Every structure is written in C-alpha cells, then in structure tokens.
C-alpha cells in the first residue's frame, strides 16, 4: 500500500488565530489529519470551542492564550506547548484582518489615514500575522532540522483591492517575508510557504458582503463577477491545501510558494 502522503500523525501543529473562522477550520483539518494541535488566540472562549470541536471529532488539541503581536506572549505559549504537546513542527499564521480605520471610503480619503493606523494594520497582519511567530517558532524548528511554516496571505497581496490599501500592503509584505525565510531556511529542514484564500465569508467581512436581508452587496457582486467559479469559498475548502503544505511527505520539495485557493480570482482580469 502506498505511503499516506497526508498523514500528520506525530506532528505538533501551532495554529495562531485559530479562534477565528478560517484559522479554526485549519486547526480542525490538521487535527483530522493526525496532528496534535495547539490552538492559539486571545479569546479563551473561542479557543476552547475550537478545542472542543477537535476533541469531539477524535483529535487532540489544547488552547493556549496568546497575543500574536507580543513576543513575550508567544514565547510563553511556546514554552507551554513544548511542555505539554511537544516540540512544534508545523506553524500556521492565521492571525490578521482589515481594520475599518484604514479602509478608504468616500468619507475617508487615502491621505487622511493616520500613520498610527497604518502601523496598527501592519502590526496585526505582518508583525503579528507572520514576523513575530516566525521569529519565535522558526529557530527552534531550524535547530531540530524539521518544520513547515504556513503564512496566510491574501488575493489583495497580488492585486491590491480598492479601499483596503493598508491590509493589501501588509499582506504583500507577508508574501515577501515568506519567500525570504524560505530561502534562508531551505537547507535547514524548514519549509516556508504561504496560502492565499480567495473570498470566504467570515465575521470580519460579512457586513461588506451581505445586506441585512442576506442578499449580496454591490461589492460582493463585483467580487463574484471577478471569480470564475462565481461563488464564495467555504472554510473547509482551505484544509486540503494546508494539509498538503504541512506534510513533510507530500510537500517535501515545496518551499517559497504561494498556494492560491481563490476560485480562480487571480486568474481573471476582465
């Protein structure tokens, strides 16, 4: 029988931002593939709910309170994970999001967005969304000679979307950081890749995509018109890509790529 390329048994996966919809789905998917999952986030209630879903399905998971923009908080969580689940071999950086204060609108021009709000967007999506977690967990993986890091990017990192200029810029920086680390650690046994979701309705963007009556907003209609599959994605549709990138067997020669799960969004212009 062929070796199961997607079996993550014996792996310890850290999923930062697993208290959110997409991060939670990725945590559940990695656990279903056999990994022991460390669920990291700021909300103990949401984190425990994610753990409960995983354990109810027969997987192994524990919640660790952590703030992705705090190096000290991440270091403390890392120590706890090592002591309970073991050394992390998979890191998924799923923390991030767009802040309305840095969204360009008819009432808020680009030039009026304060530098402090720009820095806040970069702190959330670049510093906490990839940089600090990679600095905390990456060197330990390098020391052990084994690891897979998956940074969550965005279609707007490739083609900047209207309005979300700070978010798009920060996610573009995540792509650049991913490629830099992939080169730095390529001979050290650590693979670094990014995963780009298309449009997946979640808490942070639901109001932008749907009217109160459930009908799509004009912006949602534009997005669907630009997506060849003509629909939004579901969080479960990210799992296969994440398990592939996480697997040292399936993706042993894969590093520095951006794997798009976007329904064809980036394949279409007009």
TrEMBL record:
Gene3D superfamilies: NAD(P)-binding Rossmann-like Domain (3.40.50.720). GO terms for biological process: carbohydrate metabolic process. It comes from the Bacteria. GO terms for molecular function: oxidoreductase activity, acting on the CH-OH group of donors, NAD or NADP as acceptor. Pfam families: adh_short. Keywords: Oxidoreductase. The keyword Oxidoreductase applies. The keyword Oxidoreductase applies. Belongs to the short-chain dehydrogenases/reductases (SDR) family. This is SDR family oxidoreductase. It comes from Humisphaera borealis. The lineage of its organism: Bacteria, Pseudomonadati, Planctomycetota, Phycisphaerae, Tepidisphaerales.
